[in-house]
């Protein structure tokens, strides 16, 4: 069994013309740091798939302060307008290609984080607060997933 952690980036600056260039606010950095500590204690990630958008990269950097990744990649399929089927297929391919990695962290955005959970665990489409992480148990042999929980900075 593997664990898939799907995380929404921390709080970001207001919408602007170049959505990809938005930075985390101070609150967003704090949320990411807090969730990084929570992950280190409960689900230490050893693989990372992160959106190329600045706020997701900054979130991943904060989480990485308490993680040691065996595999890390920036993926343009997990942007806000990304296609969840493509993202899920790619994630499952990476899991199969890197059997040494047991806990996969995906750092992305609304709405794709919700759609990705539903793609992996049909019927489950949580709404993510900023910094929130959905926990999914994944059986790589059967390619079946089970939605376990969602955890946000305010309740960990």
Automatic annotation (TrEMBL):
<dbReference type="InterPro" id="IPR004449">
    <property type="entry name" value="SixA"/>
</dbReference>
<dbReference type="InterPro" id="IPR029033">
    <property type="entry name" value="His_PPase_superfam"/>
</dbReference>
<dbReference type="InterPro" id="IPR051021">
    <property type="entry name" value="Mito_Ser/Thr_phosphatase"/>
</dbReference>
<dbReference type="GO" id="GO:0016787">
    <property type="term" value="F:hydrolase activity"/>
</dbReference>
<dbReference type="InterPro" id="IPR013078">
    <property type="entry name" value="His_Pase_superF_clade-1"/>
</dbReference>
<protein>
    <submittedName>
        <fullName>Histidine phosphatase</fullName>
    </submittedName>
</protein>
<dbReference type="Pfam" id="PF00300">
    <property type="entry name" value="His_Phos_1"/>
</dbReference>
<keyword id="KW-0378">Hydrolase</keyword>
């Amino acid at each position: 069994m593997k664990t898939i952690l799907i995380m929404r980036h921390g709080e970001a600056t207001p919408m602007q013309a170049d959505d990809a260039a938005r930075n985390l606010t101070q609150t967003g950095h704090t949320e990411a740091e807090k969730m990084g500590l929570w992950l280190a204690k409960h689900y230490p990630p050893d693989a990372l798939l992160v959106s190329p958008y600045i706020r997701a990269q900054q979130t991943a950097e904060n989480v990485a302060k308490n993680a040691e990744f065996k595999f890390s990649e920036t993926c343009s399929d997990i942007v806000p307008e990304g296609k969840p089927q493509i993202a899920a297929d790619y994630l499952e391919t990476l899991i199969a290609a890197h059997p040494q990695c047991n806990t996969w962290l995906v750092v992305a955005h609304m709405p794709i984080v919700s759609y990705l959970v539903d793609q992996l665990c049909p019927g489950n489409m949580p709404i993510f607060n900023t910094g929130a992480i959905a926990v999914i148990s994944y059986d790589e042999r059967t390619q079946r997933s089970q939605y376990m929980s969602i955890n946000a900075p305010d309740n960990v």
